[in-house]
Amino acid sequence: MGLERQEVLAGLTEIIVEETGLPAEAVEDDKSFVEDLDVDSLSMMTIVTLAEDKFSVRIPDDAVKDLTTVGAAVDYIIGAGESA
Amino acid sequence: MTGIGATTPLGGTAADTWQAVLAGHSGVRPLPSEWIERYELPVSFAAQIAVEPSEVLATPELRRLDRSAQFAMIAAREAWADAGTPQTDPTRLATVVGTGIGGVWTMLGAWDTVRERGARRVLPMTVPMLMPNSPTANISVAFGAKAGAHTPVSACASGAEAILLAARTIRDGRADVVIAGGTEAAIHPMPLAAFAKMQALSLRNDSPATASRPFCTTRDGFVMGEGAGVLVLESAEHAAARGARVYAQVAGVGSTADAYGVAPPDPSGRGQLAAMRTAIDDAGLVGADIVHVNAHATATPTGDTIESLAIQATLSDAVPDPADSADLANAGVPDALVSATKSMTGHLLGAAGAIETIFTVLALRDRTAPPTTNIEQLDPEVHLNVVCDRPAPLPARGKIAALNNAFGFGGHNIALVLTAP
Prior knowledge:
heterodimer, A: 84 residues, mainly alpha, Non-ribosomal Peptide Synthetase Peptidyl Carrier Protein, Chain A, globular, B: 421 residues, Peroxisomal Thiolase, Chain A, domain 1, 2 domains, six-stranded mixed β-sheet, 36% helix
């Protein structure tokens, strides 16, 4: 069963907001985790761990470095959801 | 000492806590009924925090800090603001925050996650959150304190040892300002079960609010508490240069080890006496100069008796050995007003010495010794001038000195002498 894109973006935004304290409006598809959202590597791993749990997907550690933007993470989660 | 901050079972600030202490309130509350039913905990109450950190801190901080570090951060911010947010060279600002147990909620929660859901679900901040130096490290980062970040871990003496180390850091010229205190968040079923197994806890389940009864004949153990106390200490020159309000001075410090047992204190009280006498000597005073003592007095049957003998001997300068009962009998009851504030706060373990230092500071400021509540009958073995039920006035004029004790499992004895002009 595939995941709806809007649903994944909303769920991931919720995780990012709780981790960073940023307002939800600041989290958009094209935002860079490092440059725009000030997410360091430990925070990124926290977000990934919580996202794996929330969406019941697996995001291997070596895939995380390619998830530079919110949109890239959303797409990865949808792809991982479809192959699951 | 130029700033104080606390979050305790009696209030979310140092001021609220102190008002509750002077009014003789109890910070004891019931534990979740599930803990009692499911785990068969023999104790049904503890002194839980009055204001939950979730009411004070934003979500990212709540998630990145163990409960013990949350308490410490709240108290540190209050203390720093209370000190007037000193403008300080970061390389001359240090932190010293002690704890007894560390991030026990984080550690045990992560273990539950591993067991129930596997290693992948463990959050990457787990180690930085559970380590006992996490409170001091986070405060160091938050305040940009670069002169050193230290974590004394000496069980229930940790908070007082932090004040001792802070005073020495300033005396040694390693910092001008130190943010120092203690924190503890160990009201969790496991530590409660373990302390209960040591027969250290009061099991007065029918009367929780009066369970903590230091120096009382019917005392049966301590009541576990949680919270944090943090102070800002400055060199006299630094405080004077910025025109800071000074609450009190750390005039003398003393630390000894019983080298007797890892849990029970040396029944002779000699180690405790040596710590107190060292602190009084260090302050250039004698026992008779002490007008107020905030005793460690946790309400364990043996602990309070040992401490009372050691205090009596220390303040009666003529008695070299607290185990010499004939000498003590001749010495009589020292004049100093002795308070056991754990009767109201419960025992905050690694935070106890820090919040009781704050109480001692405020007692000097207000020239008022706080009450010891719940004493139905003073133990006849306690030959001290214990302040029962209501606050009592300290000398209204002149320089006065007070003593704060904190002792910890492992035989750690810390004594601090504070003075106010």
